[in-house]
Amino acid sequence: MLDGKVVVVTGAGGGIGRDIALMAGANGARVVVNDIGAGLDGSGQDDGPAARVVAEIKAAGGEAVASLDSVADAEGAQRIVQAALDAFGRLDGIVNNAGILRDTFFHKMTEEEWDRVVKVHLYGSFHVSRAAAPVFKQQQSGSLVHMTSTSGLIGNLAQANYSAAKLGIVGLSKSIALDMQRFGVRSNCIAPFAWSRMISSIKVDSPEQEARVARLQQMTPAKIAPLAVYLLSERAASVSGQIFCVRNNEILVFSQPRPVRSVQREGGWTPEQIAEHAMPALAASFHGLDVSSDVFTWDPA
């Protein structure tokens, strides 16, 4: 499905990114495998993970090169895109998958913990997409696939930094889809459920968390790759601005925020009238303080 395409996959040294890179290569794409080889918290650097995935793609008969640049700054993102142009002469797709976790409850979260996670996830998705945008505009085609999360779409404990970044990516993706549709450029999000090195850092301190982790362990990163490869392909030419979710063998499409109920009063409102009339009338449409596991309560097939 990707014959002749050149694809960049960030954070592709392991987990979901690795499986997307491998499947893209198996479907004919020439792949830039980007990974700085850092720890879960973003520390350190090791060229091994990216090199190993490149070797796997080549061993299967594909073409790939490694990129060790960080997505967290604009210069690094530009070098990632340039690596594709230098090695293969073009660029057709980006999978913004790179990420780190620094989980902590909000009242304990430091500015550094906030900043680092937002820089890799949200800024990283912006930087790489922005570096690719002139290339896509020039050739009048291109596909961007961004990894969001139900932590942002629904909510999760001790992840204010990660949740904010992942919901921000949804807004970024929609804006790219709107701004660049006239150039034939598409942008979509995937919220993946899969057991990976990053997810393995989830704190397990209750029976409910143990049960959630046990369910996640049944969901392999390889289940995410088919949807990503499809979205990169020409078969998805009419699909843009959407939010998908993959849970094992399930593919879901998410709603996007729209008004659900309204009240009005001739002459406007006083604070007292809001308390007495507006809020009671609207309360039936309020959302509870759900976390992702409250919504996804069933075991996927």
Automatic annotation (TrEMBL):
PROSITE patterns per UniProt: ADH_SHORT (PS00061)
Domain Ketoreductase, residue spans: 5-198
Transmembrane segments: none
A Pfam short name: adh_short
Family annotation (Gene3D superfamilies): NAD(P)-binding Rossmann-like Domain
Family according to the record: Belongs to the short-chain dehydrogenases/reductases (SDR) family.
The name this protein goes by in its record: SDR family oxidoreductase
Lineage, top ranks: Bacteria, Pseudomonadati, Pseudomonadota, Alphaproteobacteria, Hyphomicrobiales
